[in-house]
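Full entry
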Amino acid sequence: MPDSTSASFVDRLRTVHSQKASVVCVGLDPDPDRLPVPFRDGNSLATSITSFCREIIHATADYACAFKLNFAFFEALGPIGAQVLEKTASAIPDDCLVIGDAKRGDIGNSARFYADAVFNHMHCDAITVAPYMGHDSVTPFLETEGTCAFVLARTSNPGAGDFQEACTCDGEPLYLRTARKVAEWNDDHPGTAGLVAGATSPEALRELRSACPTLPFLIPGVGSQGGDPAAVMQAGATDDGLVVVNSSRSIIYASEDDDFAAAAAGAARRLRDVLNGEPNESN
């Protein structure tokens, strides 16, 4: 768990990149309706999801620098969801970063407690944060050294056009204005500010990287959402890394049969290789 003696998140990210030779983040979105055949055996849903996530982690960890826990899928399990989330997080190896995909965004006093829960109790290294309520809703997530708050800038979903692109501030799109403010907040706190920048708009990704050359980016949207991995690296990567490229469904549901673990491992390996600029082999 990061503490006051931790290296910065950026330094930790660079170390993990070097050790794993990978920028892949495996997103854990355990949908009960898509659990592979081996987990449709009558066990409790909580037990099945825990086992599924642990096997996916074990199968893909060699090819990943991080895992992203999508809190919604765990919270939907009800009171036991927190236990399933904790058991899943505890299975992630120490040489991978843990990202809590919670998209929190509330007034400062509430944000302080959200940050405490995610960093000190769930032991995540990073969290996703919604910035709509402004700096006092984000900065509580920047008070823990060694951690990162990935702030939503230009997301990968179709609705990104409703506000992030359509609204302008001082002549530039809202997502770019958001990124510049996040970069300012990053200078004044012990934690690290980063950006969520979607793979589905390489143009926006390129603009964001130009505006924020030193911030780490969490890049969702490759795989099932159609983002092109090579275009992502060209637009968003830096010479020293600073990107984490997430893929969820196309890895964890690469197969829904008995070979699900091997299929997930193969999908993660292929994505790693493409992001590293290596040939994309079919198997």
The chain has a mean pLDDT of 93. The beta strands are 24-28, 66-70, 97-104, 126-129, 148-154, 168-169, 172-173, 192-197, 217-219, 243-247. Residues 45-60 form the longest helix (16 residues).
